[in-house]
Amino acid sequence: MEPALAMASAVKSKRTSRGRQKIRIKKIENPERRAVTFSKRRKGLFVMAAELCAHTGAHAAVIVFSPSGRPYAFSYPSVDEVLGRFLVGQFRDRAGLEGMQELVQMRALLLGEDDERAAEPHRGAVLEELQRGVEEMEKLRRLVLAKADVVG
Question: Residues with Cβ < 8 Å from 130, sequence gap 6 or more?
Answer without folding.
Answer: 88, 91
